Amino acid sequence: MNQENPLLEAFKETEYQIPGHGKRDISVLKEALETIDGQLESDVYGNGKVIEDFQEKIAKYLGKESSVFFPSGTMAQQIALRIWCDQKSLQKVAYHPLCHLEIHEEDGLKKLHGIEPILLADKERVITLKDVVNMKEEISCLLLELPQREIGGQLPEYEELAAISNYCRDKGIKLHLDGARLFEILPFYQKTAEEICSLFDSVYVSFYKGIGGIAGAILAGPKDFTDESKVWKRRHGGDLISLYPYIISANYYFDQRVNKMEQYYEEAKELAALYNQCYCVKTVPLEPVSNMFHVYFTVPKNELEPILRELYNETGIGLTGSLREVSNSECYFEVNIGDQYTKIPSERLKKVFF
Amino acid sequence: MNQENPLLEAFKETEYQIPGHGKRDISVLKEALETIDGQLESDVYGNGKVIEDFQEKIAKYLGKESSVFFPSGTMAQQIALRIWCDQKSLQKVAYHPLCHLEIHEEDGLKKLHGIEPILLADKERVITLKDVVNMKEEISCLLLELPQREIGGQLPEYEELAAISNYCRDKGIKLHLDGARLFEILPFYQKTAEEICSLFDSVYVSFYKGIGGIAGAILAGPKDFTDESKVWKRRHGGDLISLYPYIISANYYFDQRVNKMEQYYEEAKELAALYNQCYCVKTVPLEPVSNMFHVYFTVPKNELEPILRELYNETGIGLTGSLREVSNSECYFEVNIGDQYTKIPSERLKKVFF
């Protein structure tokens, strides 16, 4: 069917797939709903037990006073930045050049909220304290993404993070965490979510990355902040009469997977080491700091694709469904370790790498 | 549990409830999912069979070139108006003073899109051709809501509607349909959805009112319009990785109920006649033009509430869970006829009204 993407088709036909939790099919929702009594009442425009209980649970987990469930992180984060900007009457923020808001949201932050972003650091590395201190312009809010997804999921050292947080507090700059993959980085830092989040004024977390839910996000922070975010949620068209399909699945898979992040992290390091043994292959980061990394090939994309397809056919193991071109001579793909990796018999995996 | 709203609690405890399709509980989603193979793949950021098939089906039903599924009507309609305003480089629209965008969206249209609305007609009646012709300011788009929900679901005559449409086309004003309850008005007009929609440049329909789905909306119009709406959908944070819980239920209940609107309409007329026989009671409209109407009581809200609670206890039949105050001496509630009305034995219903 998908003749435009033969690599994806070959990937889907493999017996085992290395990345992720499994197919994103309807059974993911069906499984979560099986645990729920049909008589449980829907949430209604942000109210009701199903949404309030989950918001309370995640606020507590993150060590924040309050939290609000959003249909998407795109919505939650634009709103977070808008609130902090309005509070300071300064429509200026700073973030990484490969921030989700800068490259994946069709400039919603600029076109809906009139907020101007300052881009910090180079595209290849994470933001440092030096970048923040050397910033010439005044800003209302600094957004840090942990891990920095578009560069393989890199992280600053914890001490650097704490220093940035201290500096921002001193300077009256709000610090917002793009924690789309927050759960995934806790094993590296050996900190609780609460400890990491205490460095930030507001936090967004996602429930369909490492957690593997259907969609949805939480925005957490002080109660006056989350109260204001509910008004903006309505303005954005995100205050749906019922969000429970996302909330129930977020809660179900959160309980299943939030304590498996250490396992995914260890497996990511093991797998990255296997990739790094291969000719013309290098992972970024060289040693992963979460469940994710990027795999770079010094091979043209159009040459690598048929090689991978043949490998999938021969071994029955899929590495990726999507290659991205870096240049005429280089390409890469992203790996996220989830429940599938551990299901692959090690002798089968060996056939791929040896 | 809900001690702040004893009327709602008494309503929920009744054996039969007059309005609606039934409880908004999780079983609504479970039932829709039972019909679906678990291996059906999720939509992914607006692509995939589950979303594309439904968009095509509804576009065809509405007689429009193309359509896009949105998580909410709030999002869909702000975006529709933004596109038409940008096209004319004039950030001005017109709508009814009780338009959803004016009273239920926390001024999202103004605060996110910088669009200024002109309010047409009085609060008590629908917009006429005369209102449009007499408008002094130039606008990009006129929004008509059919039926006008906040005044009991009133409708203009079809000829009036056609005349407004002709006038707008002549003057280069785009005409947008707030068709949250479009399916519900077709029996009154004795027209197809396609015939009604042909008068409009763009159309929004909802799937959780008369259709009774979980949430979600469709925005339909020319292909270049819907293509642009997808960009804005991403900016708003509505381009979720998976919208299928809403799409599958919208499709399931659309098929079940879209042809029952005539029945709901006849039942609404029957029920309104029963109310109008009562002392101190009047419906708006006096004869409904869809499945909905408002019931006005010349009785103070705090006096009517205990009377209704007693009636619910005595008869086992719930009329409404929510009264709204008009003045110290008047209050009203809204009725929407769905699947529940016909389940009430007529001798039981008689006990309420005679």
TrEMBL record, chains A, B:
Cofactor section: pyridoxal 5'-phosphate
Pfam families linked: Beta_elim_lyase (PF01212)
Keywords: Pyridoxal phosphate
CC terms in the record's Gene Ontology section: cytosol
Protein's UniProt keywords contain rRNA processing: no
Keyword Methyltransferase recorded: no
Highest taxon above the source species: Bacteria
Gene3D superfamilies: Aspartate Aminotransferase, domain 1, Type I PLP-dependent aspartate aminotransferase-like (Major domain)
GO BP annotations listed: glycine biosynthetic process; L-threonine catabolic process
Domain Aromatic amino acid beta-eliminating lyase/threonine aldolase positions: 41-292
SUPFAM superfamilies the record matches: PLP-dependent transferases
GO function terms (MF aspect): L-allo-threonine aldolase activity
Family note: Belongs to the threonine aldolase family.
Name listed for the protein in its UniProt record: Threonine aldolase
Protein source organism: Fictibacillus arsenicus
